[in-house]
Specification:
6 helices; mainly alpha; about 140 residues
């Protein structure tokens, strides 16, 4: 159960929660699998909502996936949280393999320094934008 697995984190009652998941989940191909993915993600968000008055940000995946990102975005926006779309920000220069030679293809396909910077800058912009809209 999510609430048990995240007990310590939920008791902390953070002001801000950033959800960054999905990359290692299988792409749901069938209508049933899509419903399962969406339901599981909804349960996670609902659990986070119950932990306090957190402002919740959900970012799309580093490796864009229209299906998974679309399902997560739909839930995020329906529950009136913040969606941070990385899909148009990530290009080949964001991969570790673009920064230096890395023997292991899996490691080389992860974000490099530039990729991590792009992700953090997108999140910081979303945090700043949310703060500005709250103060207006």
């Amino acid at each position: 159960m999510i609430s048990e697995e995240l007990r310590d984190e939920l008791q902390f009652q953070p002001d801000i929660v950033i959800v960054a998941i999905g990359e290692n989940a299988a792409r749901p191909e069938t209508a049933e699998a899509k419903k399962e993915f969406s339901t599981a993600f909804s349960r996670l968000i609902e659990t986070l909502e119950k932990s306090g008055k957190s402002t919740i940000f959900v970012r799309s995946q580093f490796w864009p996936d229209e299906v998974k990102d679309g399902l997560m975005k739909e839930v995020t926006l329906a529950r009136k949280h913040h969606w941070v779309d990385l899909s148009k920000l990530i290009d080949e220069s964001c991969y570790a393999r673009s920064e230096r030679k890395i023997e292991h293809a899996g490691v080389a396909g992860h974000p490099g320094d530039k990729g991590m910077s792009v992700i953090s800058n997108a999140l910081l912009k979303a945090l700043n934008d949310a703060g500005k809209s709250k103060s207006n």
